[in-house]
Amino acid sequence: MKVLTRLFSMAGLAAAVGVLTATNALAADLKVGFITSLSGPVSSLGIPYDKGMKAAIAYKSELNGKKIQVVSLDDASDPSTAARNARKLIDEDKVDVIIGTAGSPGALAIAAVARETKTPLISIANANLPGEEGAWMVTLPQPAPLMVSAVVERMKQSGVKTVGYIGFSDAWGDLVYDALQKSAEPAGIKVVSNERYARADASVTGQVLKIVALRPDAVITGTSGTPGALPYLALQERGYKGQIYGTHALINPDFVRVGGPAVEGLLAPTGPVIVAEQLPDSNPIRKVSMDFRSAYQKANGAAPTDAFSAYSFDAWLLYLDAASRTKGEPGTPAYRVALRDSIVSTKELVGTHSVYNFKPDNRYGSDERSRVIVKLEKGQWKLVP
């Protein structure tokens, strides 16, 4: 009898261990890959993205009783490294979705891997691929045409007739320039220049000299982060007195710090999260934005002062919403397909930047509710009515 009792006890212990192991496996079977730029020229954006992800995890780290594991990698602002990171996350870490990265070129590199491996990508950089090439990605930052058209409307109201353009010599510079061309002509505004520079360049004096010689009423840039301050510094050095404009890719404290007096008075579009406390209580984005601020404070020990960290937070909200509607076994190809289908069918998801609605053939999920115009006054972004 003692032997039988011992056997039953051992069997019970083994069963308990088995249950515990199974429970732990279930608790950790949701995996998210996160890629950002913690070093290199895009790090002024990549570090805020990282802080936003920390806020997101502090906000909610479990779904339906299952713990979500986040595997984070630094791409050093290099698109080829971003692609290698994506492949590692998918092949070795078995993630079901990738959130990343800080720059458009890196996001496009990840998108190629996502398409090949049939893994959903939630891009937190502004990147767009048409048709089947982008079938496995969605993009959270507001599309350039949506935001640039708001800037052009403001230019028209201010009597601007000519505008000079300078942007990065990459996908983001192209997106902004194309959007400017399409919006400016119907508004009666002539785009008089298309100057470019690399993100790692130390000077844009030559490009700005050409722009100043054309004497445009205003100048707008297709840039981001600290490298985006270069044209404004050069314009100030050359005594340019016209109105200066930017895009939502400049809403960053490092840009403000580096630009200093040269960017005072800059007008730019951005998501409502930047001026959340100035929104009416009836705006649903206000509550989510304030929740984000609380989570950011908890995770990072300070209040957010940029627009980029909120994109990571919104990516997390999108993932949580989609995963809650996805059936199947995480870690399998079938689950990744189902998760992608859930992401691209998202309806009226309230985030900090937008109320998101996605369709299978539309990479962007934002509409006019995702944009406001702000002005930089004494280092602070103020809502322009």
TrEMBL record:
The keyword Signal applies. Residues 1-27 form the signal peptide. The keyword Transmembrane helix does not apply. InterPro entries: BCAA_transport (IPR051010), Leu-bd (IPR028081), Peripla_BP_I (IPR028082). Residues 30-341 form the Leucine-binding protein domain. It holds the Pfam family Peripla_BP_6. It comes from the Bacteria. Keywords: Signal. Belongs to the leucine-binding protein family. This is ABC transporter substrate-binding protein.
